[in-house]
Amino acid sequence: MKRFIVIVLLLSIFLFPLEAIALSMPCSMVLKPNEPDHLKNAMGSALIYKVQLNPPSFARTNISILAVHLPDPAFFGDYDRYEGFAYIPEEISWRFTLYPTPEDDAPTWAGRIGLITAEMKNVFVQVRLSNSITNKLGPSVLSNSIESCM
Fold first, then answer.
1. Per-residue confidence (pLDDT) for residue 68, from 0 to 100
2. Which of 38, 47, 100, 101 gives 64 a disulfide partner, CB atoms 3.0 to 4.6 angstroms apart?
3. CATH code of the domain containing 111
4. In Å, what is the CA distance from 45 to each residue of 17, 62, 74, 89, 148?
5. How many domains does the chain have?
6. What is the 3-class SS of the chain, one letter each residue?
7. 1, part of any domain
8. 26 near 47, Cβ under 8 Å?
9. Which residues of 78-100 are buried (b: 16+ CB within 10 A; e: fewer)?
């Protein structure tokens, strides 16, 4: 009987690896440039983990993003900031502002969202351009999927 249970567990890990990854938290991933030739030094990271908010309630998922060596958003057109954007295709998406640090030359952009209740399966995380006046979300400049979580 023990052998059967071990075999079933091993098979489930090898046959359904995405489910194993989705349940493995905390996790971190590297956010890579979508156009590496134009953003040679740009890179980011995302940390995904469970948080317990006050007053005590059920745990929610937090996504924190840090992005470095990005050009000024205006470099790409009518944009004035970057946003974190995470989504499960054809199901749900979340967007949140990334704030620049006060460095003069290429600030670090960082932000987080901590109220996610969806299961973290098949999630994609991006840093995207944004216009704060029109609320227009622009294209992604850095991205990766939860499958790359370590």
1. 96
2. 47
3. 2.60.40
4. 22, 14, 22, 21, 11
5. 1
6. CHHHHHHHHHHHHHHCHHHHHHHCCCEEEEEEECCCCCCCCCEEEEEEEEECCCCCCCCEEEEEEEEECCCCHHHHCCCCEEEEEEEECCCEEEEEEEEECCCCCCCCEEEEEEEECCCCCCCEEEEEEEECCCCEEEEEEEEEEHHHCC
7. no
8. yes
9. ebebbbbbbebeeeeebbbebeb
Q: Which amino acid is at 15?
A: L
Beta bridge partner(s), residue 142: 33, 127
Instruction: Please indicate, yes or no, whether the overall pTM of this predicted structure exceeds 0.90.
Output: no
**Do strands 60-68 and 136-145 pair parallel, antiparallel, or not at all (unpaired)?**
unpaired
Token pair for 111? 């932000």
- 78-126: pLDDT as tens digits: 999 999 999 999 999 999 999 999 887 789 999 999 888 888 889 999 9
